[in-house]
Amino acid sequence: MQRFRATSKFLPHLLARKISPPSSRLVLTEGARLGITVSPSWLGLPKDPKDKNPFLNQVMSVSTSSLSVATQGIMPESGVEQIELLNADDDLHGGVVVDMKDKPMDSELFTSLLKASLSQWKQKEKKGVWIKLPIELSNLVHPAVKEGFCYHHAESDYIMLKRWLPETVDTLPANASHRVGIGAFIMNNKREVLVVQEIHGRFKDAGVWKLPTGAVNEGEDICAAAVREVKEETGIETEFVEILAFRQSHKSFFQKSDLFFVCMLKPQTFDIQEQNQEIAAAQWMPVEDYAAQPFVKQNKLFDYVAEICLAKTDKHYTGFTPLATTTSSGKPSYLYFNHWDMSDLLASDKQQ
């Protein structure tokens, strides 16, 4: 948690009015129930003669180490209180990120901490607030929603909540909009292409021979995903060569858009070893027979892909070659480009 200083104007407005003894006793009793130490002098009651300045000797604080809302402490001579806040890190866009750990926390305590934190973030003119809640702290979702947070995205072990603080248009980025998939075009020296039949999905029991396909995992490069998927489905070892083409479609997976990359790979082994979880059969098929399948000819997108693969086979087509590089922040990355007239770029890269 973080600690911030707030002036006495944030104290209850009880200070500004005289309270009758019965009401004072009620406030003291309620304060004790909540774990808040209230100075009798705040309420117009007789003060302890040993107290030189009881008002300045009171402090409100909140600690996640206990379920109490407040404990007594020493207030600085400046007359300001110390209040505990949720731990938060500034992001690069004027907002804050709260990464809650899996230590159990009472929802009432969380609400108190969140309200105090929101007050300070607003004073500091923060913009977006992100709260990452592990699945062990799912009890805190409802309190956060009551304070204006909404869902952003969820994974198997956490949920991410967000809230926009300013009275302006919310510019927080939406959740990831696309899923990425690959299809692998692999041909041996007999002009045979590696094809499979699937156990599940739209091609189940359809008799259609198709290219090996699959989804790119989080943190995985397209070229690596293509090699992995072929290995998992057929047992064939391959080397990535090029991206031949890609297509974009929408509302294909839980309303998300889909990017599908047709990749050319070079086989390193040729003996098929089928896995039986997703693939019903696999074989090497003459590329012309693959392209002539009725389903392929009747579906223009598949027909286009087949024609591109044939063009590559006949050396009339150049795809996009991966070039290992880094992003501006130093992360490993690949740049895919048509190298037809870029031999100098590849040569300089090898020299480095």
From TrEMBL:
Instruction: Please name the InterPro entries in this protein's record.
Output: NUDIX_hydrolase-like_dom_sf, Nudix_hydrolase6-like, NUDIX_hydrolase_CS, NUDIX_hydrolase_dom, Pre-Nudix
Q: Per the database record, which ranges form the Nudix hydrolase domain? A: 177-309
The reply to whether Calcium figures as a keyword in the UniProt entry is no
Transferase as UniProt keyword: no
Recorded GO molecular functions are:
ADP-ribose diphosphatase activity; metal ion binding; NAD binding; NADH pyrophosphatase activity
What are the record keywords, sorted?
A: Hydrolase, Metal-binding
Q: Name one Pfam family in it.
A: Nudix_hydro
Q: Which SUPFAM superfamilies match?
A: Nudix
Q: Which domain of life is it from?
A: Eukaryota
Signal peptide: which range, if any? none
Q: Which family does the record assign?
A: Belongs to the Nudix hydrolase family.
This chain's protein is named Nudix hydrolase domain-containing protein
